[in-house]
Design brief:
This protein is α/β, with parallel strands linked by helices. The chain contains 19 helices and 19 strands. It is 40% helix and 20% strand. Strands 3-2-4-5-6 form a 5-stranded parallel β-sheet, sandwiched between helices. The longest helix is centred in the middle third of the chain and has 35 residues.
Length: 563
């Protein structure tokens, strides 16, 4: 797939100069900060030094006063509370967080996570019936529930109060819950709208601590769960999310939760570790079996129990890898067989595709065909599916405009779930293609790599690297800076590496005469042109390579273009 290169919005050179002088940093760093709307000393201080004290007052969130009052009332009366969460990473970490916190307060609390295959997404009638069976007085629904109108009505009929903590877009009519915590409510004045479900759960326990006139000491231990959820749910790493993720990763590096020790051995845990090592394994439980195993792993303190569950989850994750590889291959073949390579959208279906991995497959397909993608499978008498989107395109809004063809749907801008009648598949597929074709912008149909600045190799110093390193954690809307370097050539040491010789080890120089090494994964195909002494340009990130106690700056090559 051809990739396009584009400079991130240009920054006013005067603002860059002023900030560079104010912070005593290079123009390159100042430009990167201004592009992130960090344009004065105060903003820079908060950005580079994320503190718990900079979190927003949780009581600004609509429904928080009534939610905390109800929980405290139920706890005081020793009535039973059920934590009801989704089966993905955000949902399971949320359940673990609220369960552990309420247990710590000596609450009478249980938890419930629906079975993906039997109950599907969100609050189910079966779950509410279970709450009734267990004589539950209060259900705290987290990471789902904002569209569960019928199920909340059922709970109300059983005299069970419900508090909803959700971050997905609300429908036209809100459920008749006792209280709803969701910053995306149109009349909610909470200024930061991009919290994940676990983030809202954390705001809830923070509010409960403030009610007791306590600080952060007793809830800092839960920030590791919040950071995992933030990274796994791909919410913007800005504002509160960045503070929570930063403090959570710090917490993990100080004291790793026992249930996670089997999944990660790094001394310095990073966002990529959470995304590629921890999150897939937590997810694997709910995708391949039942998500309660992930919750049990996160809340357990028994070493034998933890070890047993970790092995089981590791096995499930291995199974998941094989499944998503096979299904991705089958989906790509379906696109080709139907001659749909040039469509505006991808909608594919097979009855035997595993429900637990279709979301992953949708993301995989976007790597091959860059466009909004929906993968569907059979679910009893209906089809259920997962939607994923490309940068800038709101797939939730697209589904909303096709809602007449859907039984139900929910989610956010870049990811959503949906259910359709089996006989409406072709009709929906056509409607979705038409909707995307009408609304998607030309620039959203191409894979674009944005870069922060054009530099020469001599400008990429340890001083630059150290400041960039302080910009972590990196993620959506706060990604690691990418630089454009022009007029590069081989310095004689470039070669192929890797078991299949498919990676590129570069040794290059530019017009400044500075020599740099770099690594380009899956870029071995370029070696012949490079060895022909052809001039080329690269997009690259600056990283520090530590080997045998020695440190050396190198480039992580994102793309190569020959002049």
């Amino acid at each position: 797939m051809k990739k396009y290169w584009e400079l991130i919005k240009s920054s006013d050179s005067k603002n860059v100069k002023v900030l560079a002088k104010e912070l005593a940093v290079s123009d390159i760093i100042a430009q990167i900060l201004v592009q992130r709307d960090i344009n004065n000393f105060a903003k820079a201080k908060n950005f580079f030094r994320p503190k718990f004290e900079n979190l927003i007052d949780p009581f600004l969130m609509k429904g928080m006063i009534s939610a905390t009052s109800k929980i405290e009332e139920v706890m005081k009366a020793d009535k039973k509370i059920m934590i009801y969460g989704d089966y993905d990473v955000d949902g399971t970490t949320s359940v673990a967080l609220l369960y552990l916190y309420l247990k710590k307060q000596n609450a009478n609390v249980i938890y419930y996570i629906p079975d993906r295959d039997i109950e599907g997404y969100g609050v189910s009638n079966l779950g509410i019936e279970k709450a009734k069976e267990k004589a539950v007085d209060l259900v705290i629904v987290i990471d789902c529930g904002i569209k569960a109108n019928d199920q909340i009505d059922l709970a109300n009929s059983y005299k069970i109060d419900v508090i909803i903590c959700d971050h997905h877009y609300p429908g036209k009519t809100l459920p008749k819950a006792f209280s709803i915590l969701n910053p995306k409510q149109s009349d909610c004045e909470y200024p930061y709208k991009e919290l994940c479900g676990c983030g809202i759960g954390f705001k809830l326990i923070h509010a409960m601590e403030l009610n007791k006139n306590r600080g952060a000491e007793d809830i800092l231990e839960f920030l590791d769960l919040v950071s995992i959820a933030i990274c796994a749910d791909i919410v913007p790493l800005t504002g509160e999310n960045r503070i929570l993720a930063s403090l959570g990763i710090k917490q993990m590096n100080n004291k790793l939760r026992p249930g996670l020790m089997n999944f990660i051995k790094n001394k310095n845990i990073s966002v990529s570790d959470l995304i590629f090592k921890i999150a897939p394994r937590i997810n694997a439980a709910g995708r391949m079996d039942h998500a309660r195993y992930a919750v049990e792993l996160m809340i357990s303190k028994d070493e034998k129990d933890i070890s047993s569950k970790a092995r089981a989850i590791e096995f499930l994750n291995s199974e998941r890898k094989l499944l998503d590889k096979r299904i991705t291959k089958e989906a790509l073949e379906q696109i080709e067989n139907l001659s749909e390579q040039n469509h505006y959208s991808t909608v594919v279906y097979r009855p035997d595709w595993h429900k637990g991995v279709i979301g992953i497959v949708a993301s995989r397909l976007i790597e091959h065909h860059y466009r909004p993608t929906i993968v569907l499978t059979k679910s009893e008498k209906t089809y259920s599916g997962s939607a994923r989107s490309v940068k800038g395109f709101d797939v939730y809004k697209a589904l909303l405009n096709c809602s007449e063809h859907l039984i139900q749907f929910g989610g956010h801008k870049y990811a959503a779930g949906l259910t359709i009648e089996a006989f409406k598949y072709s009709e929906f597929k056509s409607a979705f293609e038409k909707e995307v074709s009408k609304t998607i912008l030309p620039e959203q149909r191409r894979k674009t790599i944005f870069y922060e600045a054009e530099v020469s190799l001599d400008k990429l110093t340890y001083s630059i690297y150290r400041i960039i390193d302080q910009m972590k954690p990196f993620g959506p809307l706060n990604r690691k800076p990418i630089f454009l370097i022009n007029n590069c050539s081989d310095n004689g040491g470039s070669k192929l590496v890797g078991a299949d010789n498919n990676h590129l080890k570069l040794e290059i120089k530019d017009e400044s005469g500075t020599v740099f090494s770099g690594i380009g994964f899956e870029m071995g195909k370029h070696i012949s042109k490079i060895k022909m002494k052809k001039s080329f340009s690269i997009l690259a990130q600056l990283q520090n390579n530590e080997f045998m106690g020695r440190s050396k700056l190198q480039l992580n090559i994102k793309d190569i273009s020959f002049d």
